Amino acid sequence: MITDNHPFKINEAGHLEAGGVDLVNLAETYGTPLYVYDVSIIRDNCRQFIQTFKELGVQAQVAYASKAFSAIAMLQVVNQEGMSLDVVSKGELYTALQADVPVNKIHLHGNNKSLEELTMAIDHDIGCIVVDNFYEIDLIERILHDKHKTIHVLMRVTPGIESNTHQYIMTGNEDSKFGFNLSNGQADQAFLRLRRNSRIHVKGLHSHIGSQLFESDGPLLAAQLLFQKLDYWHTEYGFIPDVLNLGGGFGIRYTAEDEPLSYPAFVKELVSAVQQHAAAIEIPTPEIWIEPGRAIAGNAGLTLYTVGAMKTVPGVRHYISVDGGMTDNLRPALYQAAYEGVLANKASLPNVQTVSVAGKCCESGDILIWNLPLPAVEPNDILAVFSTGAYGYSMANHYNRFAKPAVVFAENGKSQEVVRRETYEDVVKNDRSYE
Length: 435
Ligand SMILES: Cc1ncc(COP(=O)(O)O)c(C=O)c1O
Ligand SMILES: N[C@@H](CCCC[NH3+])C(=O)O
Hints:
Lyase, Ornithine Decarboxylase, Chain A, domain 1, lyase, DAP_deCOOHase_LysA, Ala_racemase/Decarboxylase_C
């Protein structure tokens, strides 16, 4: 039963709906496991960010961090909503080009960009490269020289902040694989080197301190440290940044215990801090860029599973097993991430039992949800797990040779498959027999 402010509705049949489409029907039509997105929620998430910047009258770019869920249809939707795009690999850049995202709105990230990736980005004149390390500067300089080209860059810096999130999704701490360290001289060295090259335009700084943040204190502290450095570079070298990119990381609600700051409130705090810091060091307010991934895709998506085997360990636990698991949602196994779910075919029935939802991989750790209250469960019920829209499909894998599920978009009462379900031919397509 849906008990609180979920964006999904229950229809007259007592079934869960997304985008005006009955999810039990979708499970029948497309099979399970199935990722379903309510496209109006994706659009609304984009608009919340973009509108807030507009209302505040500041120059901004809101780039969707496509690692959260990269697929042509998804990139088409965010592009329609006026978003820019953050990509971190040749595959994500290729997907963006296939989706006809304007190249000047694409930003390339990565802590180990290959010569091939950088060449592709430079050949396509993408909007900017977020430079991460000295090796990358060598590669960029070489490509620009050989091709007689120019490029805009942001410098990714590591401000030395321990964000309040899981250690694996923390990125701005001192001991991080990402970016130039702000306090040990690396950032200064990189800045001077990039500025010396007339083919490179340094647009400004980038910092991303972590993901699934509920408060603005981390990014605000990062902004303060970035401005200390900008103050120094302004005084010493007359540098005025065009852009300050404060990254993504805006947290979402996975369970009732999660209470993230609203996106407009988060953006307002960031903007006001940047404006104050810029005024204090007497430079114009730079364009503010952000890169939400989870906040755009996360709560718009859910996963449908069919319930199969059940097992009771007397006095301990009641397990229900579903036809997916850590292959379509790695987050519980990787980060002990918590989720909520309901039976889509019994969405209005009261909860009468507590179950733990097991995936079907050959791993004891493949448990999608511990202690989920549900109505009486039977085999063939359809379980909907909420907020799987970010880092679900994008981290899906073939463990135990599972085929990846399909993705369906639902909007205004219509549904469309936007990523087809893999077949077992797909699963073995790269295998070659050993002669
Ligand atoms: C550089 C960068 N930008 C943006 C993001 C998107 O993060 P989120 O999906 O939490 O908004 C990430 C991931 O943490 C990242 O590393
Ligand atoms: N994949 C992670 C977040 C990492 C984001 C990229 N730096 C998650 O599922 O929460």
